[in-house]
Every structure is written in structure tokens, then in C-alpha cells.
Amino acid sequence: MDTVFALASARGRAGVAVIRVSGPLALDAGIALCGSLPGSRGLRTLVDASGEVLDEALVLVFGEGHSFTGEAVVEFQVHGSTAVTDALLRRLGEIAGLRLAEPGEFTRRALENGRLDLAQVEGLADLIDAETEAQRMQAQRVLSGALGKKADEWRRDLIRAAALLEATIDFADEEVPVDVSPEVTALIDRVQQSLATERDGVGIAERIRDGFEVAIVGPPNAGKSTLLNALAGREAAITSEMAGTTRDVIEVRMDLGGLPVTVLDTAGLRATDDLVEGIGIKRAVERAGAADLRVFLLSDGEAPYGMEPGPDDIVVQGKADLGRQGFAVSGRTGAGLDELVSRIQKVLSARAAHAGTAIRERHRLAIIRASEALENARIEVSGGPDRAELAAEELRSAVRALDSLVGRVDVENILDEIFASFCLGK
Ligand SMILES: Nc1nc2c(c(=O)[nH]1)N(C=O)[C@@H](CNc1ccc(C(=O)N[C@@H](CCC(=O)O)C(=O)O)cc1)CN2
Ligand SMILES: Nc1nc2c(ncn2[C@@H]2O[C@H](COP(=O)(O)OP(=O)(O)OP(=O)(O)O)[C@@H](O)[C@H]2O)c(=O)[nH]1
Ligand SMILES: [Mg+2]
């Protein structure tokens, strides 16, 4: 196994930067740079091959089996300039047996050494990408091993069900065979229900990770683009007194009360003979229709045109500063903005509450495969004791599908995909 090193903190000017070395030669590399290593942590002067001082560093030492990767690890916390980190990385590269780590390689080693399961690795990737509070909390839940715990519970129930069935196979010749089917069915149903909940939460978990879409729609000139700009805090969209200003869909990503949201500004909806405006309106309807939520911004008294508000959609009057009836906002003065944001937040966080511990399409597919096998198992169980063997086989196939969630089986083919998006030094 190679010993690898990388800058673990972000590149560029910073108070402190962290460089990590992991692998069998980590401690030797540490000694080469520091002269002597501290027991667990200590301040050391790092020198290059000719004894020239590189920097004063806080050095952390982790023995094999007691580090993030599970390998021997030495970390150097140095002054965070590019010159210092470059010099240190150059020096480490000179040491025989050491090479620069690939993106995600530390985490890959943590996985190989059983420090993390596959779902935790995905949680860690999400945690590093997290920009909002909801993303952080979701990633943390997965990183803590919540999906692995669920998978263990499902596995335990299914293995117990399979064992009950197998016991009847062995005793099939007995005079009065015990009917295990009620207990087996109950175990299968319990797992099925839990799987269904997790499966249904994946879509929302993906929204939390990738962002919700909220579209602003309404008639031309209602103040949609001005509202977008007010929410974004910058002039993202062109505004003008001309009806029909916005043509393309303008997207701005923002943090709305901890939720990642992409707000879409769209072309004003109306009947038009203008070809380009017509294309814009078609796009507006398509994108707004596919969005998670729509804010209908209306001109005074007008009814929505071209699209109907759904039950969760928000209907609000624009240009509140001109005196409007009911709930109104003004992108120009900021009136009503807090109320609008809190209404959006309320709708989306009610949905976000349905996210579970399965958070990716990969998880959803494994759950569906398991669920299908359980469906088959149930049919076999109801076919009587003669079908016990087949039922047990379906249960084992469900267990295999669930094992793939945490990487107990079928790992290799998905690892490259998962690690492809990791940053260097993680
Ligand atoms: N400096 C530093 N900070 C870091 C990390 C790291 O690798 N280095 N982490 C990496 O992503 C995260 C923390 N995760 C970690 C997980 C396990 C161990 C570890 O060495 N565990 C030992 C006990 C070490 C001790 O108690 O001193 C063990 O489990 O035996 C370290 C960090 C966030 N902060
Ligand atoms: N008084 C007042 N004027 C506003 C407000 N918001 C926008 N306006 C003005 O109304 C006009 C239209 O604003 P836009 O934001 O471009 O309207 P829009 O809904 O994006 O229009 P289209 O892109 O054509 O569909 C501009 O002259 C804005 O300055 C507001 O809250 N109060
Ligand atoms: Mg506009």
C-alpha cells in the first residue's frame, strides 16, 4: 500500500492549512520532516532535505487503526500560505514511497479499512458539499451511519424470517408442522413498510441536496424580476417598465431559511403574437410547472392567466407599495418579503420533513429491488410449506439488495462513480 499525502484544507491564503500523510510510511515521513515525532500532538519545526526550515507546525500523529483512514497518519498544521503548503508538498513528494493522494483517496482507504460504510462515504461527500443548514443536517445523519443502522435492522428481521422458513424445511416430515407463516409475514410486512417510507423520502432528500425550485410566475410587468432581484440581493434579472421584458428563465440559487432554493424568474404570461415572447412563455410554463413550488405574483386584482395555482402554491399581489388588497409584496420597497420567504420556507420544510436516511437514487433502486424480492417472498409464503425454500431464497435476495446500500456487496462498480466527485485531500 502506497503512502499518500495531500493538502486537506482548501488551497489559498488561510490562517492555518492542514496537510495529511496516510499509509505505512507516514510516521517515517513525519520523522524525516520533524526530526522526532510527538506522541500524539506537538509543535515541531519542519525542515527540508538540506535542513532548511520550512515552517513551524502543529503535528498530529495517529497510530494505525486510530485515524480517519485507519492507517498510520501524520498531519501537519502549518501557516496557511500557498508558498508554505507548496514547499511542504514538494518536500513530501521527494520522499521515496510517498505520492500525492488522488481525490477521495483518504476516504476510500477509510472505507476499505471499515472505518466508514458506503452510505457514510456518500454522507461525507454531501457534508463537504453542504451549503445550507438543511443540507448539513441531512449529510450529518447519513455520515453518522443512520442508513447502515436501518439496513442492519431490516437484515436482522429478514434473516430471522429466513431462519424460520428454513427450520420448517428441515422438519417438513414431522406429523404436525408448526405454521411459521404468520410470523414470517409479519416480519416481511414490517420491513416492507419501513422500506416504503425510506423509498418515498428519497425524492425530498435529493431536493435538500440539490436544491428546491421555486418559480415566480404571473402576468407581464407584475414585478417578478424586481422581486427576484430583491430576494437575491443583486441585479440578476433585467427589469423595465416594458411588459414582456423577461424571455429566458433566470435562475438564482439562494439559502432560504436553511433550505437550498433555486428561484426562477420567468416570462410574464399573456397571449402574444410575438414569436420570441411566445417561446419565452412556453418555457416559463414548462419550468414553472416542473418546479417544486410556484409563487403567483399578480397585478392588482387580476386572476392568474395561463397556469392554475396548485394547493401549496403561493398567490400574492405585486407592487405592495401602490396599495393592494390582501397579501402583497414589493420588490421595490421590500414590503412583504419576509412574509413571502417564510411562507415558501413553511411549505418546503413541511416537505423536507419527509426525508429519511436513504438520500440517493442508488439507495432508492436498492430499496426497490429489496422490496420486489419481499413481494415475491410473501407470495411464496402464502403458497404453503412446500414453497418455504423459494420464499427463503427471495428473502436472501432482498438481504443482498439491502447489503449493497452500505457496500457489503457489489461495491467495486460504484466506487469510482462515488469518488469521482470527491475533492483532493478528502
Ligand atoms: N485534523 C483533522 N480534523 C478532522 C479530520 C481529520 O482527519 N483531521 N476529520 C476527517 O475527516 C474529521 C473528523 N473525523 C475523524 C475521525 C476519526 C479520527 C480518528 O483518528 N479517530 C481515532 C481516535 C483519535 C483520537 O481520539 O485522538 C480512532 O477512532 O481510533 C479522526 C478524525 C473532521 N476533522
Ligand atoms: N411601484 C412599484 N413598481 C415596481 C415594483 N416592482 C417592479 N416595479 C416596476 O414595474 C415594472 C416591471 O417590473 P419587472 O420586475 O420588470 O416586471 P416583470 O414582472 O418581471 O415583467 P416581465 O418580465 O415583463 O414579465 C418596472 O418598471 C419596475 O420598476 C414594486 O414593488 N413597486
Ligand atoms: Mg421580468
What is this structure, in a nutshell?
With 426 residues, the chain is α/β, with parallel strands linked by helices.
Which properties best describe this structure?
426 residues, alpha/beta, Gyrase A, domain 2, Four Helix Bundle (Hemerythrin (Met), subunit A), Rossmann fold, six-stranded mixed β-sheet, five-stranded mixed β-sheet, flat, binds guanosine-5'-triphosphate, binds magnesium ion
Tell me the structural class: alpha/beta
Strand order of the largest sheet: 3-4-5-2-1-6
Number of separate structural domains: 3
| Overall pLDDT confidence | 94
Binding site for GTP: 221-226, 240-246, 265-268
Organism: Sinisalibacter aestuarii
Binding site for Mg(2+): 225, 246
Protein name: tRNA modification GTPase MnmE
Overall description:
The chain has helices spanning 26-34, 82-94, 105-112, 118-129, 133-143, 146-170, 181-210, 224-232, 275-290, 337-352, 361-382, 388-406, 412-420, and strands at residues 3-7, 14-22, 41-47, 53-62, 73-80, 98-100, 212-217, 250-256, 259-265, 293-298, 314-317. With 426 residues, it is of the alpha/beta class. A six-stranded mixed beta sheet has the order 3-4-5-2-1-6. It is flat, with a radius of gyration of 29 Å. The mean pLDDT is 94. The structure holds ligand FFO, guanosine-5'-triphosphate and magnesium ion (MG). The site of magnesium ion has 6 residues, from helix 8.
